[in-house]
Amino acid sequence: MEKSALQKARAAYQPKLPAGLRGGVTIKEGAPTQSAGNQEEIKALFPNTYGMPIVEFVPTDQPCICEPMNLGIILSGGQAPGGHNVICGLFDGIKKLNPAGKLYGFLMGPGGLVDHKYIELTDAVIDEYRNTGGFDMIGSGRTKLEKEDQFESGLKIIRELGIKAVVIIGGDDSNTNACVLAEYYAAKNYGVQVIGCPKTIDGDLKNEQIETSFGFDTACKTYAEVIGNIQRDANSARKYWHFIKLMGRSASHIALECALQTQPNICIISEEVEAKNQTLDDIVTYIAEIVAKRAASGNNFGTVLIPEGLIEFIPAMKRLIAELNDLLADGKSLDGLTSESAAIYASLPESVAKQLTLERDPHGNVQVSLIETEKLLSEMVGKKLAVWKKEGKFVGKFAPQHHFFGYEGRCAAPSNYDADYCYALGQSAAQLVANGKTGYMAVVKNTTAPAAEWIAGGVPITMMMNMERRNGEMKPVIKKALVELDGAPFKTFAANRDEWAEKTCFVYPGPIQYWGPTEVCDEPTKTLQLEQKA
Amino acid sequence: MEKSALQKARAAYQPKLPAGLRGGVTIKEGAPTQSAGNQEEIKALFPNTYGMPIVEFVPTDQPCICEPMNLGIILSGGQAPGGHNVICGLFDGIKKLNPAGKLYGFLMGPGGLVDHKYIELTDAVIDEYRNTGGFDMIGSGRTKLEKEDQFESGLKIIRELGIKAVVIIGGDDSNTNACVLAEYYAAKNYGVQVIGCPKTIDGDLKNEQIETSFGFDTACKTYAEVIGNIQRDANSARKYWHFIKLMGRSASHIALECALQTQPNICIISEEVEAKNQTLDDIVTYIAEIVAKRAASGNNFGTVLIPEGLIEFIPAMKRLIAELNDLLADGKSLDGLTSESAAIYASLPESVAKQLTLERDPHGNVQVSLIETEKLLSEMVGKKLAVWKKEGKFVGKFAPQHHFFGYEGRCAAPSNYDADYCYALGQSAAQLVANGKTGYMAVVKNTTAPAAEWIAGGVPITMMMNMERRNGEMKPVIKKALVELDGAPFKTFAANRDEWAEKTCFVYPGPIQYWGPTEVCDEPTKTLQLEQKA
């Protein structure tokens, strides 16, 4: 396998560990915990894994010695930078406790456990992947672990390999399922532990216990790099408006973080759109007004950041889509649309309207994810400006360019932050297993401080749960963290956006640096810094 | 102006200079030169700037002292990383020769000279832009300097500011025009010198005298970073084929360099398509065959690099477009297409066919640049695979994703290579002026060696010229450097591509590093390394 110079040099990076995980490690337990909501229901569903204490790892003079442990590791869901380092941390953690311990990687996601597809992760394998991006070491997948026959099938290979615990790296759903599995194995007294690790580039798996989910740091910095480059181009050429869509279906954390890093002229935050009950026309008018204002001072250029999931956060669009789904499923004509929806439908560019009615998924539903929101918005802004031009309200030019960034950042080589954070998560997971824990998520806190001061530990997954309706059924789930409009990151953005809109305040973050001054290489995200300061 | 941590830290970088430009500098002249072709015609057109010697700067113990020089600088054409460093090098070069010298920046391109729009570039301005990307210090523009009234208008402000020489940073056309201007001022005995600097991210301004044009290094490394990230994602998710279009209308250097850096499964080189007289169907078949082959071994994923200008290099497409232009301009029906063109037209996806006939530029011509080649190809590949599936020749899945990278790299902060190279070019330009040269291009050679061993100097622009037909007229132009099919970079690619296609040999270059090991931070492009080795 040919490697780039950076891959080779970066392989030697030794992630920084919290003091609590460096030498001998002992465990400190807190008071019993409660779930985030619906305590009685969650407790009834998780009798064996409910109410456990938060734990923290602290240094001790005693050396770490325990029986050799065999562990299994699973990557679940979309790629996020740092996944390999969680595995490396787990591997080193197992070996530190007893070099005879083994780590097995289940292949292509949770399905690997069910179907008994795995490899042993030896020193040679692990060393190939230290500090690298991607999930290609063992692959990932989207199989949901939620049925008893899956749990029982998994148990067979777990027994065969003498596995003490399974570590599942995933987002909110995967961690919920990790807890369901932990509860099942505990209820059956199978003696198999299950530990979760918080991953998502979207940043929507966080709460009082989880400062951030891994990958968010690296992905946002990668997007911010190219957004900054585009902004510098916009400011040099002075003739294009760049509409930049950013990955993140359910939450706008990425768009917000990128806005804080790059100070674009416009950034739309889905959660605000929903809270303010804004219409598509409201958003289009907001953008067009800024374009017109900048044009009036001779600046026919700018940047607009758009979260991927925007359309589904616009209440009126959501209603239109729901009505379309009903009408089209029944083979009825569009005459059945309510007048509000009919008006919105009529306002859409032809290509989008066509797509909404013609291209449906196997269930007959409109395929919202196929809508090119960045082009939809720029087209509608262009139309509005053309009207304003005739009315004399807009004097200038409007030439849009379009970009969508997602795959560009999900598998970037982890930043120092993510490399360190993930490695510590992996080591924490090993310690949670060694200390007999199950139904826990590995966590590392205080990460805006230098790594030595980070605090590693574990949190019962049930503590983050409440009951929510999913596909018509009430289910125990980890609450998704959307952008909070009264949180410090959004408030900072909101306090500055008018200035950023009118003036050109672009910041150019540049590419992620692995060597060099610490303020360049080791800073966490603006989101995290602002949240911790607040 | 708020700055990122990287911007602040990077401002302090002191570009490495060739030994010949470090202390006292003296000039070494070679033998008289000839133009690349059409010697008699070029000589007749440039009686005052033809036949001058190549010059080289060498160290001397004599200190640099000369009269204070005032210079003007112009950025011409598209952005390229390092432009600001040329200006900084020029500024420092002027000040080193005599601190009383001044540098004026003409605003928004050559038009700034004609329209007398300029600013003085003081220490304070220069220091804001050291080692930064973009052309925003003074802006750029595409006004062509080619008419006498422009030259005369420019002369007025040149006289007013006491400017000794104008330095024009641009591509092949801009440097040709720089030479025309130099010749004009020389013929008129105005005593104003003109110096060019070789810039283009496309990499098509190079020859025996110019190793590379600046910006190519940084832009390619930025594209290779995100392509590498996408490849890692492809290799982790194992379910998408990524079609990645890369900027570069007339030459495929960027696509080729990115392929050498990242080892994708497929890279199309326009120059090869033209040389082999390939059809659109040939290209589609080539891609589909590789997709099918990989699918047969269970690999339903991969990457395809496509140069932006591909369509215009496909001989049959070129003929179709020419026929369409003729027919549509005369308001005739498409029945007038030749049978070959009619067949190609019929094979195009509906959206592309529509675009070719409906959307025309103000001159009535088909707008080739609007064709989304990456989607055109993936759609046609998908159709072919669907046919093959029915025939049992393809068993697998084909899910494409699309990307286009251009603006993401044109204004990136220059790599160490470009920062050093550009700074040396600027200092060379100052020395060329101090030595009384005009009609020269600043050059720096031997750049695959450590910077101290680089050789700085100047080359008469006429030396790179020949006569070519442009818009129906024979004109003196600098020969555009297309990808040479018998050159080492292409041959290296061609020797490896079958292996890269079938196996997964992805390399992940990662982001440009400014600090750290020299093999990570200071390596020139693969293209340059292979060319120099050959």
Q: Topology of this structure?
A:
Two copies of one chain form a homodimer.
Chain A: H1 5-10, E1 24-32, H2 39-45, E2 53-60, E3 70-75, H3 83-97, E4 102-106, H4 111-114, E5 118-120, H5 123-129, H6 148-160, E6 163-170, H7 172-187, E7 193-198, H8 216-237, E8 241-246, H9 253-262, E9 266-267, H10 270-275, H11 280-296, E10 302-307, H12 315-329, H13 339-347, H14 350-358, H15 373-390, E11 400-405, H16 407-410, H17 416-434, E12 440-445, E13 455-460, E14 465-470, E15 473-478, H18 488-502, H19 518-521, H20 526-533
Parallel strand pairs in A: 3-4, 3-6, 6-7, 7-12, 8-10, 8-11, 9-10
Antiparallel strand pairs in A: 1-2, 2-13, 4-5, 12-13, 14-15
Question: What does this protein structure show overall?
Answer:
Two copies of one chain form a homodimer. The radius of gyration of chain A is 25 Å and the shape is globular. In chain A, α9 (253-262) packs across α18, α11 packs across α15 and α12 packs across α13 (339-347). In chain A, the strands form three sheets. A nine-stranded mixed β-sheet of chain A has the order 1-2-13-12-7-6-3-4-5, with helices on both faces. Helix content of chain A is 42%, strand content 17%. In chain A, α7 (172-187) links the parallel β6 and β7. With 534 residues, the first copy, chain A, is α/β, with parallel strands linked by helices. Chain A has helices spanning 5-10, 39-45, 83-97, 111-114, 123-129, 148-160, 172-187, 216-237, 253-262, 270-275, 280-296, 315-329, 339-347, 350-358, 373-390, 407-410, 416-434, 488-502, 518-521, 526-533, and strands at residues 24-32, 53-60, 70-75, 102-106, 118-120, 163-170, 193-198, 241-246, 266-267, 302-307, 400-405, 440-445, 455-460, 465-470, 473-478. In chain A, 56% of the residues are buried. Chains A and B meet through α1, α8 and α16 of A and α1 and α9 of B.
